[in-house]
Design a protein that fits this description.
275 residues, alpha/beta, TIM Barrel, two-stranded antiparallel sheet, globular, NADP, NADP_OxRdtase_dom, Aldo/ket_reductase_CS, oxidoreductase activity, acting on the CH-OH group of donors, NAD or NADP as acceptor, Aldo/keto reductase
Amino acid sequence: MNLTAQSTVELLNGIRMPRLGLGVWRSKEGPETENAVSAALQAGYRLIDTAALYENEASVGRAVRSSGVPREQIFVTTKVWNSEQGYDTALKAFQASMDKLGLDYVDLYLVHWPVPGKYKETYRALETLYEEGKVRAIGVSNFLVHHLEDLMGSCRIKPMVNQVEMHPLLTRKPLLEFCKREGIQAESWRPLMRGGFDIPLLQELSAKYGKTPAQILIRWHLQLDIVTIPKSARAERIRENADVFGFELSREDMARIDGLNEDRRFGADPDNFDF
């Protein structure tokens, strides 16, 4: 699998989404986020993932606008938060995000969590935004198979992306297989498991390939055709996380990493959350 930092996947509507991006969850508004995004763009990243909840959209927008990289080469994702779900409120939330970002359009807009009784109306607002040309692609985050089936029973435009927690301790195989069958691109958040690198197999593979455990994890995601957005605010770590294209994990080692699965979440359960 010959990949580079600019490698992309094709979404259902034909647009290209970078395979590797920078997540900015918990990055502080201001210089911390601006410097992280700038470092990522300088290192070759072309996907930046933010959300209304993160309260750093303004910093992301400033860094994108001042980067010197043509806007059409940068793929910006943001998300509508749970308290703003519903048709009219989601439309207002999108405009608030656009005002903060200071961009003419968003590349991908996601429903952040499947809030019961609200996510269908929220997604209908995303369809409106897509049809009006304000977003290039739409999708969801933290949706399980039954959420997707429920949504797809009434939506006009199939979700193009489903962003979920995924890592070797939570491999999500049934969900991934469903998304692949439906042409929905899977994207992983928290791919580095909160830095849980003390797993013996990861240490073994790190020594074998001469790569850090984080690089092993990122490469594993990429070889599964999963878009991934490791988070860091440190320029050296951002560059290190992008140095995953000069090696390839063997099929056997991919399977061994798959075997670590414990169905273990570090984040909330999409069927049981209260925020």
